[in-house]
Amino acid sequence: MNINITRELYDHHDDVESRYETPEGLNEDTVRNISKYKNEPEWMLNKRLEALKIFNEMKMPNFGPSLEKLDLNKITYFNIPNADADSDSWEKVPENIKRTFEKLGIPEAERLSLAGVGAQYDSQVVYHNIREDLKKKGVIFEDMDVAVQKYPDLVKKYFMNQCIKPNLHKFAALHGAVWSGGTFLFIPKGVKIDMPLQAYFRMNAKKSGQFEHTLIIVDEGAQVSYIEGCSSPVYNASSIHAGGVEIFVHKNARMRYSSVENWSRNTFNLNTKRAIVEENGIIEWISGNMGSGLTMLYPTSFLVGKNARANHISIAYAGHDQNQDTGSKVYHLAENTSSTIKSKSISKDGGITSYRGLVKIKKGAINSKCAVSCDALMFDNKSQSNTYPSIDVQESNADIVHEATVGKISEEQIFYLQSRGLSQEQAVQMIVSGFIEPLIKELPLEYAVEMNRLIELEMEGSLG
Fold it and tell me: Is residue 230 within 8 Å of residue 258, measured between CB atoms?
């Protein structure tokens, strides 16, 4: 397979007219107008208004990279493109929007290897489809806005009241107030899907925010793999992405959530992702963070049932003017729970990568096990790599291991590979490819090829 990826593929922007947008800034009128435009039930409006109240009361995060350059008063929080919502026909999507998604491989990827796909443009899902045989099995794969209307009892049971609560932090509250679009996925009891489902989120408008909400419920004994891709064009004004991902893995169920986030460098990526895992359930997080000027993202697993398991694999890349503050959090709240965390980072040209993690083993969670591994690769003396692990073990009968390494590509390594016939650039790429291989092999083939190509693009000219 040969996929040609250029930076223009992600960094271009489209001249797409807005059908409706709210004025810059956030207040009660903004929230009410979003809810009114969507014709939401009163209970959802009330959740939004309560989240807005919490947002106004909470302070900005007091840890991690500085957010002083993010002016929340200059953001457009809701922007609807001039396109029909949630079309199940690709032909109905406007040509200029369609071209963007076709450049990104949608819906070609759907035809090749996906069970279903959704595509969101700014604040609205413009395309959503799923295989007919899965519909007949009771699988629900919908735009989140549609799910509020069609499955209110199910949404009300799970939406932002167990996994992500608005008082978690300021940007969770912001998300609760202005969320729009996203994915609702329900896998019925015992249904196992052999092909992944995918959603792609594209933020196009200038000085905008995207706040999609992903709610995934994997019922008892079910199994599914879900992939999210994200990108945005380059502007000289700041944008914000503050999505929310809530995953519920019920007894004996298995969920794999993969994401490749490639926001432009004018974007503040302040995403919140959390999962609750019941008895014998398994959650797998596969994460690649390539873009954005600043990212704060820490996927979190709550292992609430016996023998529940969490696997976190992530890679972060930071180049010039990039600060990637990422990590994982795992709460062991029941006996015989286990988790592994593998974090990889690459920094060059003054980029900053940080692993910020938390492992907590509650009293009574006997025989719990956790292994944490953080590996960093640096290209120069200007770049930074930091590790901020937090480990809280309240149970004596538990096993936890943490290791961290920082390495630099050496002239000796490059010389050795060049002596075997490789060019200098090929030698560097081979070293980097070997470093990120544990993540790449966990991704579906198309995404693995794309991730490798993205790394190659970022490495171009890395040796001066």
Answer: no
What is the DSSP code string of 369-419?
Answer: EEEEEEEEEE-SSS-EEEEEEEEEE--SSEEEEEEEEEEE--HHHHHHHHT
The residue out of 269, 297, 325 marking a domain boundary is 297
Residue-range definition of the domain harbouring residue 426: 411-464
Is residue 91 one of the residues assigned to a domain? yes
Cβ-contact 61, 296 below 8 angstroms: yes
Q: How far is CA 369 from CA 110, 360, 438, in A?
A: 38, 11, 21
Q: What is the DSSP letter of 363?
A: T
Round to whole Å and give the CA distance between 280 and 184: 23
| Dist CA 210 CA 175 (whole Å) | 9
Give me the amino acid identity at 265. Answer: R
Alpha carbon distances (Å) from 84 to 88, 128, 376? 10, 11, 45
Query: Residue with structure tokens 């932090």?
Result: 169
Q: Could you report the per-residue pLDDT of 58-99, keeping only the tens digit for each?
A: 999 988 899 999 999 998 888 776 544 444 544 555 555 445
Lowest mean pLDDT among 190-199, 218-227, 273-282, 291-300: 190-199
Q: Count how many domains the chain has.
A: 2
Smallest Cα–Cα separation from 47: which of 149, 178, 152, 216? 178
Angle between the N-to-C axes of helices 170-178 and 42-57, in degrees from 0 to 180, rounded to the nearest 10: 150
Residue 141: name the closest of 105, 193, 99 by CA: 193
Q: How many helices (H) and strands (E) does the chain have?
A: 12, 26
Which stretches of 82-218 are assigned E, i.e. beta strand? 116-121, 124-130, 140-143, 182-187, 197-202, 209-210, 213-218
Provide the whole-model pTM. Answer: 0.85
Q: Could you say which of 297, 325, 358 is where a domain stops?
A: 297
Provide the token pair at 142.
Answer: 């919908």
**CA pair distance 128, 200, nearest whole angstrom:** 10
Report the alpha-carbon distance of residue 67 to residue 415 in Å, rounded.
41
Instruction: Tell me: do 291 and 419 sit in the same domain.
Output: no
What DSSP character marks residue 280?
Answer: T
Per-residue pLDDT of 371-398, as tens digits, reads: 999 999 888 888 889 999 999 999 999 9
What the block records as the tokens of 460 is 């171009």
On whether the CB atoms of residues 256 and 286 are closer than 8 A, the answer is yes
Residues with Cβ within 8 Å of 300's Cβ and at least 6 positions away in sequence, in order, are: 273, 274, 275, 328, 329, 330, 331
Whether 40 and 148 have beta carbons less than 8 Å apart is answered as yes
Question: Does any domain span residue 374?
Answer: no
pLDDT of amino acid 4:
37
